[in-house]
Write a structure and sequence with these properties.
Structural class of chain A: mainly alpha
CATH architecture of the largest domain in chain A: 3-Layer(aba) Sandwich
Number of domains of chain A: 2
Largest interface: A-B, 53 and 53 residues
Oligomer: homodimer
Helix content of chain A: 40-55%
CATH topology of the largest domain in chain A: Rossmann fold
Strand order of the largest sheet of chain A: 1-2-3
């Protein structure tokens, strides 16, 4: 029996952080043996709102791949590849554009939200506007059955499946609908400043590559309960980032529960809780950091991995495009 | 010195007619020795508003190529190629989409007009909406210096040159701006029913492939002056399609002038004028029709011409895309 196919990936915007680890990376490590996993480094998607700065992409591709290997993604079973090196993706996007209307794109809730967030001055770039179509091409070109996404990305899967149905009914039924794989403990790791989202541009991220000192300093600066001034005062758990992190990362749930009770009653200082979190995260991140440093010594090895993954992805891409052209009757001669 | 490059072409929507001959085909024959001419059979563009009927494209590609050869386009000097077989066009379109905003596309007068004309029921397909960007890719991929267009297409060249400037300033200056080549005796051949435009869907076209009888019948049915009931009545020249055609096709301008005077004064019947036009058009179209019949005997020869042209176009396309990827710093490894 053939393994089901997963399509996942990241925009290469820089080093990956704990938010990526919780939201997707750890999941990929868990899934990579059970499924055939394609991991797309979406450099073209990064260009859609950043057309002016292509020179940073190469370095970011290396950083992201290092993070992948560091957390345990195995390039022997997972295919890591670069979007721009598979031009079939742009070709399929082009064909799909005939199957979606402008008003349908305008109604896409994810795009609506992101357009608001990004404050495009002189207007939304067309490339950004059509990126749900490009994402549909990413997914379908690899005949992905499963796409791990957060709840906010569900409209993108819906859009993809609409395109799949439209293509299949207009031409020939060569594509399968994709299923969203929403992580069970869905939810987003907040930034160390307590903001809902951890992000590079927000300056509130713990990177997988942070050294032990940096990690400790970031933890000691974390947002807790601003009204918890004296150790003996009762403290709040809700919105207390340190406890949120403990919920994510501590395996000893009993100790965390006891600490929470103690903290709420009064008599447990922030520093103690942070030190406990520091122990846990140092233990989690040390081997990741060490593997990362090990791989970083040989960048040409990293390049080879991405090159080999891209070659493998291109084979699959080329097979699908042959089917697409046949279905569309574009294989004239 | 290198020849300047022309990019021109047609959507393969069926056999070509006298309107095409006047508006572009005869011009291509005149230009093909002086310039390096790429003739694009725009099958992908035909799909943008006709995604459902790809099966007719192949036949139409053959018909259009037959018409090209029949009018004297020489595949030894002009490169006839098929858009969909040069996927670099879709890739370049994809990159260009980041350099144009949605509001800018919405302001494009040509697109505005065409969207109105086409009455898209459930909304404009995205592929149609972005076709000015795709056209810019057609032009720039071949580094065209000149693009023969009608006045109504000038905004498309403007859009292309905006993209060229934006690409050149964002990445590296690898593209040249294109110049619109508006035919001197600009103007559009009306349909035989007197409508401003000759078109397949309007059912008012004289095809280059029409046989002598059909041609004669069409001419005898042409729209003249509906108030010119009796031969002795004075007739009007303005809006009289037969005289419009004579202005286009008669080389004996003096005779035409005399006929016009006679017609306006009264005493010259429509049938006589039509017979004169018939003589002229039969003479023009007979060799075209015969060459077409000759070529139509060997369709595999036609396929070879298109295949060879496409191969040649792909070489140029591949060269340009190497430059594009270098300029965009997408040539990572």
């Amino acid at each position: 029996m053939q393994k089901k196919i997963i399509l996942t990936g990241d925009r290469p915007t820089g080093k990956l952080h704990l938010g990526h680890y919780v939201g997707s990376l750890s999941n990929r490590v868990n899934l990579q043996d059970k499924y055939e996993q394609f991991i797309l480094i979406a450099d073209l998607q990064a260009l859609t709102d950043n057309a002016e700065r292509p020179e940073i992409l190469k370095q970011n591709i290396i950083e992201v791949t290092l993070d992948y290997l560091a957390v345990g993604i195995d390039p022997k079973v997972s295919t890591i590849f670069i979007q721009s090196q598979v031009p079939e993706l742009t070709e399929l996007t082009f064909y799909f554009m005939n199957l979606v209307t402008v008003p349908r794109l305008q109604r896409n809730p994810t795009v609506k939200t992101e357009i608001k967030q990004k404050n495009f001055g002189s207007g939304v770039p067309v490339g950004f506007f059509v990126y749900p179509i490009s994402q549909a091409a990413d997914i379908t070109l690899f005949k992905a059955n499963l796409v791990p996404v957060g709840v906010d990305q569900l409209p993108m899967i819906e859009q993809t499946n609409e395109i799949v149905r439209k293509f299949n009914s207009t031409y020939e039924p060569i594509f399968v609908e994709a299923e969203a794989l929403v992580p069970k403990d869905a939810g987003r790791l907040p930034g160390i400043d307590g903001q809902a989202k951890m992000g590079k541009s927000l300056g509130n991220a713990i990177y997988l590559s942070d050294d032990a000192d940096t990690l400790q300093k970031k933890i000691m600066s974390m947002f807790t309960d601003p009204t918890h001034l004296k150790v003996e005062d009762p403290g709040k758990i809700e919105g207390n980032t340190v406890f949120t992190y403990l919920d994510y990362f501590a395996s000893d749930k009993k100790t965390v529960m006891e600490m929470k009770e103690h903290y709420q009653k009064g008599g447990l200082g922030d520093v103690k809780v942070k030190k406990y979190l520091n122990e846990i995260l140092q233990e989690l991140l040390k081997p990741i950091r060490e593997r990362r440093q090990h791989f970083a010594k040989d960048i040409s090895y990293i390049e080879n991995i991405v090159r080999a993954g891209t070659e493998k992805a291109k084979i699959k891409a080329s097979q699908t495009m042959q089917e697409v052209r046949k279905a569309m009757k574009l294989n004239y001669f």
